[in-house]
Amino acid sequence: MSSINPTGGAGAGKVSLPDLRKTEAPPTPAETAGPQEAETPKPPKKEVASTFEGTRPAKAAGTELRPGPVSQNPGAPKPTRERPEDPLVGTFAASRTTRATPPSPVEHEGRKWDVAGIVMKDGEPHAQLQEAGVQPRYMPMVEVLKGRVVEFPDDQGVLQKYRLIGTRKKDDPKTGKPQEHLVLHKLADSPEPPPLRTQQPARGYPIRNRPLSAAPEVNLSKDKEVLVPMSAADKVLFTFNTGDHAPSGRHTYSLGVMRYDSFLLTPQEPARTKEVPLKSLGKVEVRLRERELEGVYTLEATANGGIQASGMDKDGNTGTHAIQPSAVAGRYVLVPAPDFGGVVALDAFNFHEAKARATADTTATTGARPISDPLIGTMPTTVRAQVDRGAASLQHIKKLLDDPRATGPVTLFNVDLGIGGNGATEEGNKQAQAVLDSLVAYRARNPGAPMQVIADERMWNNRELNKELTTRLKDAGIDIVFPRSTAKPRINHSKGACVGERVVLTTAAVVPKTTTKSDITTELPPEAAGLYRDYLSLTFKTGEFTPADKEKLESLVAGLAKHGVVANDPMTKRPMAARAMDGLITGATRSLRFLGSELKDVDTARKFLAQAQAGVQVLIQYREIDPESESLLREAMKDLPNLKLENVDTWKPYPHFNALIADDSQAYVGTAYLWPNQLSMAHHGLSHESGVVLGDDSVRDLLRQFDDLEARTRPA
After folding, report:
1. pTM above threshold 0.90
2. Could you please report the per-residue DSSP string of 626-670?
3. Could you tell me the CA-to-CA distances from 289 to 10, 73, 328, 360, 682 in Å, in that order?
4. Whole-angstrom Cα distance, residue 565 to residue 551?
């Protein structure tokens, strides 16, 4: 994950936008018709996987700024449910809620501004101010945008007001294929744009695994309805206020690409910026560079033209000390967003926290395995990962289902058994049908066993052939679960099956596309299998997800990692798969090989490059790579003969897995790709990933299978 520095200078690349993490639910027409009355304070919201970038402590209704900076109240009690220690980040004296609280915006000339940095001019410090609320960002459709007022031009190009009802599929007249459209409803009134609140209200939503929201229950006249194709979504404008209803705080964005129920929003006008003497602002709140996780510091100018910062450090020491302008961090960080084809602004605290969680502890010891992180273990050498071509990977699931000794619950996760369709082969249909038959036969042998299929809602529903599959599963008493967190879908990219006491993890997912891929499947040993069954049932549980559930889930994720089973879990923000891959890349001392689907993260490319520059033999075999990473690595290859880059997209079948092998002694295989959304929990996508860490004989066996795969699938 890399930051983008478009302008240079102090604070560049660290930018500003209002906190979107706790926005209000879509307003009713009555709410948008005029100024809103102050709301009665509501009880704290129950713990859920945040779809935004962190948490802000509750505050009294109607207040805009916090009562005071962190340094003025260092001994404030933290919530009883929160523990100060995060094993992936470390111990801090202040609670996470306190530390994650963003700096209060600066009030200047009737506007709100964020401090993007400090520069020296004419011998005195000046604050670089950037207008709050004007940055590229993403917003969840259901949680934030649905039901709000937008503008869209009519046939004469005149902007008209509409209410955004949702999305709907409509057949394209040229291709006949269904295409996603925005559904707008014409409004007769001209409601004032409501503010985006900074506190998420408790609306009584069912917390987990609820169906998609239906359109508002009002009579919508069809003659006032407009369907806008997604290709024209950038003409739909959304306006909101960052504070009260004053026009000075109003900002307009155009909608862009929608991915996983979130839209990319682009500001229609650039943010205002200015440099103001720090002394004229009095005290301002900022974060300090390389110390973003400590929380907010109070900054002020000194009489001799210097700068002093007051606050609490990691160990709980409070005080005031002089700093240089370069020590001031920006409020936000611009990061690449591959899903949206652009960049978005993320909260600096949450960006750095997510980066720390995904970075392995590398305390090198002589003769040790590449991963030296004490939180990550290695599977027993008796465990073998099996490389299969095409739909043959499904045989491992069928084997578990056909075991006559198997009893108890069955969970099939992210394995689509749809049959037929474009690209289907006779062999693929046969393998899928065999697994489906075994699944139904298991139900007949175990009529009382809970059975469920956990699927990605959009992938599942976008396949017409899955309608028949859905009917057959339901007729057999097998539940279909689409995991969600509040109103936002989670991306269930992990794959496998739990059958009774046994568990297999695989990278194989969808038929018929599976027939064009090579996948890897690993059966977990008994103790790890037991932990994974408990983990899966809790992270995808239905109903309320309590603080006790989260604490137990954290324990299960940690226990699995010590057994060599690594999961990226968005419910706990624990990216153990990403942490294991980082440990392999940075811990290798002799050789490093990547064979997999995607390398689309420039920071990871730089890690590979650093290892090659240190003398490590680096081989990167990829199917897809981002242009910046490819340019960086190919340029370096001119001077580094030990660095090799190869596109394996022409292999038939092609690798549909991610594998990292370090020093031929330790390896990761699993579903997580080397790209931002699957390496960090800071992004919009709440992606579940899974994999295993292998060692010694298991790695040598895996390498033999890779050699065979390459020999048999590489074009002549």
Report:
1. no
2. -HHHHHHHHHHHTT-TTEEEEE-TTSSSEE-SEEEEETTTEEEEE
3. 11, 22, 6, 21, 18
4. 19
- SS3 (DSSP) at 360: coil
**DSSP structure string for 242-276:** SSSS-GGGEEEEEEEEEETTEEEEEESSPPPEEEE
Q: What is the pLDDT of residues 311-320, one digit of tens each?
A: 999 999 999 9
Element (H, E) at 287: strand 284-288
Other CB atoms within a 10 A radius of the CB of residue 268 amount to 13
Which residues, other chains included, contact 349 with Cβ-Cβ below 8 Å and sequence gap of 6+?
54, 99, 100, 102, 287, 292, 293, 295
Where residue 392 falls among pLDDT bands split at 50, 70, 90? confident
Q: Which two tokens stand for residue 132?
A: 């709050």
Predicted confidence at residue 42, as pLDDT, reads: 40
Residue 575, phi then psi, degrees to nearest 5: -90, 70
**Residue type for position 508:** A
- Of 513, 488, 361, residue with least CA distance to 429: 513
Percent of the chain with pLDDT over 90: 47
**Cα 346 to Cα 77, 103, 252, 291, distances in angstroms:** 27, 14, 19, 16
Separation of alpha carbons 182 and 470, rounded Å: 27
- Return d(Cα 102, Cα 350) in angstroms, integer: 10
pLDDT of 702: 97
User: Which residues touch 519 (CB under 8 Å, ≥6 apart)?
Assistant: 387, 388, 393, 506, 507, 508, 656, 657
Tally of CB atoms within 10 A around 189? 9
In order of 96, 293, 314, the CA distances from 92 in angstroms are 8, 9, 5
Q: What tokens does 407 get?
A: 């009893």
Closest CA to 552 of 531, 567, 576: 531
> 330 near 345, Cβ under 8 Å?
no
- With CA atoms as reference, report the closest residue to 344 among 262, 423, 466, 285: 262
How many whole angstroms separate alpha carbon 120 and alpha carbon 9? 11
Residue with tokens 């809620």: 97
pLDDT at 190: 56
Pair 350, 336: CB distance under 8 Å: no
Q: Which regions of 507-647 does DSSP assign to beta strands (E)?
A: 517-523, 565-569, 574-575, 591-599, 617-625, 643-647
Determine contact, residues 666/584, Cβ cutoff 8 Å: yes
| Strand 328-329, strand 284-288: pairing | antiparallel
Position 546: which residue type? T
Q: Report yes or no: 485 and 520 within 8 Å, Cβ to Cβ.
A: no
Neighbours of 77 (CB within 10 A): 7
Query: How far, in whole angstroms, is CA 689 from its chain's centroid?
Result: 11
Largest CA distance in the chain: 83
- Quick one: tokens of 254? 């155009």
